[in-house]
Amino acid sequence: MKIICIGRNYAKHIAELQNEKPLNPVIFLKPDSAILVKNQPFFIPPFSKEIHYEVEILVKINKVGKYINQKFAHTYYDEIGLGIDFTARDIQDDCKAKGLPWEKAKAFDGSAVIGEFFPKESLGDLNNLNFKLQKNDQIVQDGNTNAMLWKIDELIAYVSQFFTLKKGDILFTGTPEGVGKVSENDVLVGILNGVENFRVNIK
Is 192 exposed, middle or buried (0-12, 13-18, 19+ CB in 10 A)? Predict the structure, then answer.
Protein backbone atom coordinates (compact mmCIF):
# COMPACT_ATOMS: atom_id res chain seq x y z
CA MET A 1 0.00 0.00 0.00
CA LYS A 2 1.01 3.60 -0.43
CA ILE A 3 0.08 6.88 1.21
CA ILE A 4 -0.73 9.69 -1.20
CA CYS A 5 -0.86 13.15 0.37
CA ILE A 6 -2.34 16.39 -0.87
CA GLY A 7 -0.83 19.72 0.07
CA ARG A 8 -2.37 23.21 -0.09
CA ASN A 9 -6.00 22.12 -0.27
CA TYR A 10 -7.37 24.71 2.18
CA ALA A 11 -7.04 28.41 1.36
CA LYS A 12 -6.51 29.58 4.94
CA HIS A 13 -3.71 27.05 5.48
CA ILE A 14 -2.03 28.26 2.29
CA ALA A 15 -2.22 31.80 3.69
CA GLU A 16 -0.86 30.90 7.13
CA LEU A 17 2.27 29.36 5.57
CA GLN A 18 2.54 32.19 3.05
CA ASN A 19 2.46 29.79 0.11
CA GLU A 20 1.09 30.42 -3.35
CA LYS A 21 -2.29 28.95 -4.25
CA PRO A 22 -1.56 26.13 -6.72
CA LEU A 23 -3.31 25.66 -10.05
CA ASN A 24 -3.56 21.91 -9.38
CA PRO A 25 -3.40 19.73 -6.27
CA VAL A 26 0.08 19.38 -4.77
CA ILE A 27 0.95 15.69 -4.41
CA PHE A 28 3.60 13.93 -2.35
CA LEU A 29 3.99 10.38 -1.04
CA LYS A 30 4.78 8.70 2.25
CA PRO A 31 6.10 5.12 2.44
CA ASP A 32 4.33 2.50 4.55
CA SER A 33 7.18 2.85 7.07
CA ALA A 34 5.80 6.32 7.86
CA ILE A 35 2.72 4.79 9.53
CA LEU A 36 2.73 5.28 13.29
CA VAL A 37 1.91 1.96 14.91
CA LYS A 38 -1.56 2.14 16.44
CA ASN A 39 -1.64 3.08 20.12
CA GLN A 40 2.08 3.87 20.12
CA PRO A 41 3.46 7.31 21.06
CA PHE A 42 5.05 9.62 18.54
CA PHE A 43 8.71 10.24 19.34
CA ILE A 44 10.04 13.60 18.22
CA PRO A 45 12.92 12.74 15.87
CA PRO A 46 16.39 14.09 16.69
CA PHE A 47 16.84 15.69 13.26
CA SER A 48 14.14 18.35 13.73
CA LYS A 49 13.40 21.07 16.25
CA GLU A 50 10.04 21.96 14.75
CA ILE A 51 7.66 19.06 14.17
CA HIS A 52 4.21 20.32 13.25
CA TYR A 53 0.84 18.53 13.43
CA GLU A 54 -1.51 18.64 10.41
CA VAL A 55 -4.88 16.93 10.89
CA GLU A 56 -6.49 15.57 7.72
CA ILE A 57 -9.46 13.63 6.40
CA LEU A 58 -8.34 10.23 5.06
CA VAL A 59 -9.82 8.14 2.27
CA LYS A 60 -9.16 4.40 1.95
CA ILE A 61 -9.13 3.12 -1.64
CA ASN A 62 -11.10 -0.10 -2.17
CA LYS A 63 -10.12 -1.24 -5.69
CA VAL A 64 -7.59 -0.76 -8.46
CA GLY A 65 -8.07 2.28 -10.66
CA LYS A 66 -6.20 4.34 -13.24
CA TYR A 67 -7.38 7.44 -15.12
CA ILE A 68 -10.56 7.43 -13.04
CA ASN A 69 -13.40 9.58 -14.33
CA GLN A 70 -14.54 11.96 -11.60
CA LYS A 71 -18.16 10.82 -11.91
CA PHE A 72 -17.06 7.26 -10.98
CA ALA A 73 -14.55 8.26 -8.28
CA HIS A 74 -17.07 7.68 -5.48
CA THR A 75 -17.03 3.94 -6.27
CA TYR A 76 -13.33 3.69 -5.40
CA TYR A 77 -13.75 4.19 -1.64
CA ASP A 78 -16.13 3.03 1.07
CA GLU A 79 -14.39 4.33 4.20
CA ILE A 80 -13.36 7.70 5.58
CA GLY A 81 -11.03 8.35 8.49
CA LEU A 82 -8.87 10.96 10.18
CA GLY A 83 -5.14 11.24 10.67
CA ILE A 84 -2.11 13.45 11.11
CA ASP A 85 0.58 14.35 8.60
CA PHE A 86 3.50 15.15 10.90
CA THR A 87 5.88 17.59 9.23
CA ALA A 88 9.44 18.61 10.06
CA ARG A 89 8.76 22.25 9.23
CA ASP A 90 12.35 23.43 9.69
CA ILE A 91 13.62 20.81 7.25
CA GLN A 92 10.79 21.48 4.81
CA ASP A 93 11.45 25.23 4.81
CA ASP A 94 15.15 24.64 4.19
CA CYS A 95 14.45 22.25 1.31
CA LYS A 96 11.91 24.60 -0.25
CA ALA A 97 14.33 27.53 -0.04
CA LYS A 98 16.92 25.48 -1.93
CA GLY A 99 14.44 24.15 -4.48
CA LEU A 100 14.93 20.59 -3.24
CA PRO A 101 12.39 17.79 -2.72
CA TRP A 102 11.06 17.68 0.83
CA GLU A 103 10.18 14.02 1.40
CA LYS A 104 12.54 13.80 4.36
CA ALA A 105 10.40 16.48 6.04
CA LYS A 106 7.15 14.61 5.38
CA ALA A 107 7.85 10.91 4.90
CA PHE A 108 10.02 10.01 7.90
CA ASP A 109 9.21 7.06 10.17
CA GLY A 110 6.09 7.62 12.27
CA SER A 111 5.00 10.71 10.35
CA ALA A 112 1.60 9.31 9.36
CA VAL A 113 -1.04 8.87 12.06
CA ILE A 114 -3.96 6.80 10.76
CA GLY A 115 -7.04 6.78 12.96
CA GLU A 116 -10.20 4.72 12.76
CA PHE A 117 -12.08 4.36 9.47
CA PHE A 118 -15.87 4.54 9.22
CA PRO A 119 -18.28 3.56 6.42
CA LYS A 120 -18.78 6.70 4.38
CA GLU A 121 -22.56 6.20 4.46
CA SER A 122 -22.48 6.66 8.24
CA LEU A 123 -20.93 10.12 7.98
CA GLY A 124 -23.53 11.92 5.89
CA ASP A 125 -22.46 14.56 3.37
CA LEU A 126 -18.77 14.03 2.71
CA ASN A 127 -18.49 17.63 1.51
CA ASN A 128 -19.63 18.82 4.94
CA LEU A 129 -17.55 16.79 7.41
CA ASN A 130 -16.48 18.53 10.60
CA PHE A 131 -13.11 17.55 12.04
CA LYS A 132 -10.93 18.94 14.80
CA LEU A 133 -7.58 18.44 16.46
CA GLN A 134 -7.15 19.02 20.17
CA LYS A 135 -3.76 19.58 21.76
CA ASN A 136 -3.81 19.20 25.53
CA ASP A 137 -7.62 19.65 25.56
CA GLN A 138 -7.47 22.87 23.50
CA ILE A 139 -8.84 22.92 19.94
CA VAL A 140 -6.00 23.94 17.64
CA GLN A 141 -7.46 22.96 14.27
CA ASP A 142 -11.14 23.15 13.35
CA GLY A 143 -11.92 22.20 9.76
CA ASN A 144 -14.74 21.26 7.42
CA THR A 145 -14.43 19.53 4.07
CA ASN A 146 -16.64 22.20 2.52
CA ALA A 147 -13.52 24.42 2.55
CA MET A 148 -11.48 22.02 0.40
CA LEU A 149 -10.23 23.60 -2.83
CA TRP A 150 -10.52 20.15 -4.44
CA LYS A 151 -13.12 17.70 -3.12
CA ILE A 152 -12.46 14.01 -2.53
CA ASP A 153 -13.75 12.80 -5.90
CA GLU A 154 -11.78 15.49 -7.73
CA LEU A 155 -8.62 14.42 -5.91
CA ILE A 156 -9.09 10.76 -6.76
CA ALA A 157 -9.60 11.55 -10.44
CA TYR A 158 -6.56 13.83 -10.50
CA VAL A 159 -4.19 11.58 -8.56
CA SER A 160 -5.13 8.53 -10.65
CA GLN A 161 -3.71 10.23 -13.73
CA PHE A 162 -0.24 9.82 -12.24
CA PHE A 163 -0.47 6.81 -9.91
CA THR A 164 -2.44 3.61 -10.22
CA LEU A 165 -4.61 3.45 -7.12
CA LYS A 166 -4.70 0.07 -5.41
CA LYS A 167 -6.86 -1.48 -2.72
CA GLY A 168 -5.65 -0.34 0.69
CA ASP A 169 -3.98 2.85 -0.49
CA ILE A 170 -4.74 5.85 1.72
CA LEU A 171 -5.29 9.38 0.51
CA PHE A 172 -4.52 12.25 2.89
CA THR A 173 -6.66 15.15 1.63
CA GLY A 174 -4.93 18.21 3.10
CA THR A 175 -5.05 20.20 6.32
CA PRO A 176 -6.93 23.33 7.38
CA GLU A 177 -5.36 26.29 9.14
CA GLY A 178 -4.05 26.09 12.70
CA VAL A 179 -0.99 23.87 12.24
CA GLY A 180 1.61 24.17 14.95
CA LYS A 181 4.50 22.68 16.84
CA VAL A 182 4.36 19.63 19.09
CA SER A 183 6.37 19.30 22.28
CA GLU A 184 7.22 16.44 24.60
CA ASN A 185 4.24 15.31 26.73
CA ASP A 186 1.64 16.87 24.44
CA VAL A 187 -1.51 14.82 23.84
CA LEU A 188 -3.18 15.11 20.44
CA VAL A 189 -6.79 14.01 19.93
CA GLY A 190 -8.52 13.86 16.54
CA ILE A 191 -12.30 14.29 16.37
CA LEU A 192 -14.44 13.45 13.34
CA ASN A 193 -18.07 14.56 13.32
CA GLY A 194 -17.96 14.96 17.09
CA VAL A 195 -16.48 11.50 17.80
CA GLU A 196 -12.93 10.87 19.03
CA ASN A 197 -11.02 9.15 16.25
CA PHE A 198 -7.45 8.89 17.53
CA ARG A 199 -5.25 9.90 20.47
CA VAL A 200 -1.48 10.30 20.26
CA ASN A 201 1.01 10.95 23.05
CA ILE A 202 4.12 12.92 22.13
CA LYS A 203 7.43 11.73 23.60
Answer: buried
Integer Cα distance of 95 and 92 in angstroms: 5
CATH of region 3-201: 3.90.850.10
Q: What is the pLDDT of residues 5-52, one digit of tens each?
A: 998 898 776 666 666 777 899 999 999 999 999 989 999 999 999 999
Q: How many residues does the chain have?
A: 203
Q: pTM of whole model > 0.90? A: yes
Q: Which stretches does DSSP call E strand in the chain? A: 3-7, 26-30, 51-53, 55-61, 77-85, 87-88, 112-119, 130-135, 138-144, 170-172, 180-181, 187-192, 195-201
Backbone angles phi, psi at 73, to 5 degrees: -60, -30
d(CA 40, CA 113) in angstroms, rounded, equals 10
Q: Where are the domains of the chain?
A: 3-201
Query: In terms of DSSP bridges, do strands 170-172 and 3-7 run parallel, antiparallel, or are they unpaired?
Result: parallel
pLDDT per position as a tens digit, 61-112: 999 999 999 999 999 999 999 999 999 999 999 999 999 999 999 999 999 9
CB 84 within 8 A of CB 54: yes
pLDDT score, position 15: 63
- Residue 59: closest CA among 117, 1, 132, 112: 117
